[in-house]
TrEMBL record:
Keywords: Phosphoprotein. It comes from Rurimicrobium arvi. This is histidine kinase. The modification 4-aspartylphosphate is found at residue 53. Residues 4-119 form the Response regulatory domain. Residues 148-359 form the Histidine kinase domain. PROSITE patterns: HIS_KIN, RESPONSE_REGULATORY. The keyword DNA-binding does not apply. It holds the Pfam family Response_reg. It catalyses: ATP + protein L-histidine = ADP + protein N-phospho-L-histidine. CDD domains: HisKA, REC_HupR-like. It comes from the Bacteria. Its EC number is 2.7.13.3.
Length: 359
């Protein structure tokens, strides 16, 4: 596509001459005043270069370009001047209001050279702006992360300290047992948090290691992990694996995906449901692995589907987690270039379906 160039001048003959001279090389837009220029820029966000005459009615070219800069910072601004107002030009360049100035009458070779250099500057500046926005976003996420870390760690510690205070005054063995149970619960929370932090760290710095995946083995491992919890909470846990072909991927990432989905399926069960159930189904076919985790738990509204993978998001206040699980899982999915589909209804349950391609 042709480079988009805007030329601003109050003299109609100059606008016609500029467009006639460069329309074969560039996609040329012309404007005779500020409002017309702003309208063109609003409708063409990919405009790369703006040429503006210094002598405009009621406003100088420097002032006009400065006004445009506040609204449209990316296009590179070039000043055209036909009189010796060098102080204004120098100040404009020094204050980064303009990229360059050219004397009128302009020469075609100067315009070509200026556009070429301006476009290089445009792309460099655009990348810098993108990096700055990413950096700002990273700092914002880091601030949120640091606050949440301190908050989540202090919670369990406060519970333990409170229990110790009461233990020092407890006389009955029943009270001691209750307080020890509270301490155990707080320590378990802290341990789960440390594990989640470890997973978060590993999956935001680690590299993918490809190996042969035997999903039957992974499914058997999940039974060993969750069978006691399922039995104690009367949850029917079922696994089904169909794999008749080899599959290569990163086993650590796949384990993280499966374990996080299962952990949530077991955690967010309905207390009043008589027939609690969780099912893990894995099918490998034509180089694709489909991992499905289904439950008949509390479910969730469709409105929160886009939030559940955010860092520190908690979908349920009764079952307090730390908001790392699905966020870590999203990171693992991105590394494996996988996709996830979520189906859920409140009071009915949830189904998470992950699709991965063999590497």
């Amino acid at each position: 596509m042709k480079i988009k160039v805007l030329y601003i001048d109050d003299e109609q003959n100059n606008l016609i001459s500029f467009k006639a001279a460069f329309r074969m090389h560039y996609n040329v837009f012309v404007a005779s005043d500020v409002s017309e220029a702003i309208n063109i820029l609003m409708n063409n966000p990919d405009m790369k270069v703006i040429f503006c005459d210094q002598k405009m009615p009621g406003i100088t070219g420097v002032e006009l370009l400065e006004q445009i800069k506040t609204m449209f910072p990316l296009p590179v601004r070039v000043l055209l001047t036909g009189f010796a107002d060098m102080e204004a030009v120098v100040n404009a360049i020094n204050m980064s209001q303009v990229f360059r100035y050219l004397k009128k009458p302009w020469k075609e070779e100067e315009i070509y050279q200026t556009v070429e250099e301006a476009v290089k500057y445009y792309h460099a500046y655009s990348m810098m702006e993108i990096n700055m926005q990413e950096l700002k976003s990273a700092y914002k996420e880091l601030d949120k992360f640091a606050y949440s870390v301190s908050h989540d760690i202090r919670g369990p510690i406060a519970g333990i300290l409170t229990a110790i205070d009461y233990l020092e005054q407890a006389d009955r063995i029943e009270d001691v047992r209750d307080l020890l149970g509270l301490m155990r619960k707080s320590l378990k929370q802290l341990d789960e948090y440390i594990i989640a932090m470890h997973e978060y760290y590993n999956h935001h710095k680690g590299q993918v290691t490809v190996s042969n995946i035997t999903f039957e083995t992974l499914a058997e491992e999940t039974k060993n992990i969750y069978s006691v919890f399922a039995g104690a909470n009367k949850i029917a846990y079922e696994t089904e694996v169909v794999q008749t072909e080899p599959f290569k991927s990163d086993v650590v990432s796949i384990k993280l995906i499966i374990n996080n989905l299962l952990s949530n399926a077991f955690k967010y069960q309905r207390k009043d449901e008589a027939n609690k159930r969780v099912k893990l189904a894995i099918e490998v076919k034509s180089g694709l692995a489909t991992i499905t985790v289904e439950d008949n738990g509390i479910g969730m509204e469709e409105a929160v589907f886009g939030k559940i993978f955010d860092l520190h998001y908690r979908s349920d206040t009764e079952n307090q987690g730390f908001g790392f699980g699905l966020f870590n899982m999203k990171g693992a999915l991105m590394k494996l270039k996988g996709q996830i589909d979520v189906q859920s209804k409140p009071g009915v349950g949830s189904t998470f379906k992950v699709t991965l391609a063999s590497m």
